Amino acid sequence: MSHSERTFIAVKPDGVQRGLTSKILARFEDRGYKLVGIKLIQADEQLLSQHYAEHVGKPFFPKMVSFMMSGPILATVWEGKDVVKQGRVILGATNPLSNAPGTIRGDFGIDLGRNVCHGSDSVESANREISLWFKKEELVQWESNQAKWIYE
């Protein structure tokens, strides 16, 4: 059985600055997803304009890009069954105040503009975002010894 669906999860500058990276990584590992790519990056305007292409020209775009350039971002790629949809569940709604405790944003966020993480919203978006943030050779193919305990 293939568990090769992948998603892109980024810990935004507020999450990195607040020291939440290990707690966020743990949520995905605890769930049983496999980490196949990780790097700390200082994103530039070009990368962020490509990443947020659907928002270019919107009134909030300059402020959002400025915030995302304000500090390092922990870029990650996770692999597993239904990881895109489940990743969004783990993160919670975009507005942290719409979440009950238990999601990353519900536990660590208060303000929409400081919602700690980004997660791909579809398999297509995940593939596009992964290719923007990672070179193919930066993604590791490996077999998890835990897979037999997670998947039937």
Largest sheet: 4 strands, antiparallel
Question: Count of helical segments?
Answer: 8
Helix content: 25-40%
CATH homology superfamily: Nucleoside diphosphate kinase-like domain
Count of DSSP strands:
4
Quaternary assembly = single chain
CATH architecture: 2-Layer Sandwich
Structural class: alpha+beta
Approximately how much beta-strand content do the residues carry? 15-25%
Walkthrough of the structure:
The radius of gyration is 15 Å and the shape is globular. 39% of the residues lie in helices and 16% in strands. The chain has a four-stranded antiparallel β-sheet with strand order 2-3-1-4. The chain has helices at residues 13-17, 21-31, 45-51, 61-68, 83-91, 104-108, 123-133, 147-150, and strands at 6-11, 34-41, 73-79, 117-119. The protein starts with 5 loop residues before the first strand and ends with a helix. It has 152 residues and is an alpha+beta fold. The chain contains eight helices and four strands, in the order βααβααβααβαα. The chain has a single domain (6-149), classed as Alpha-Beta Plaits, CATH 3.30.70. The model has no long low-confidence stretch (mean pLDDT 95).
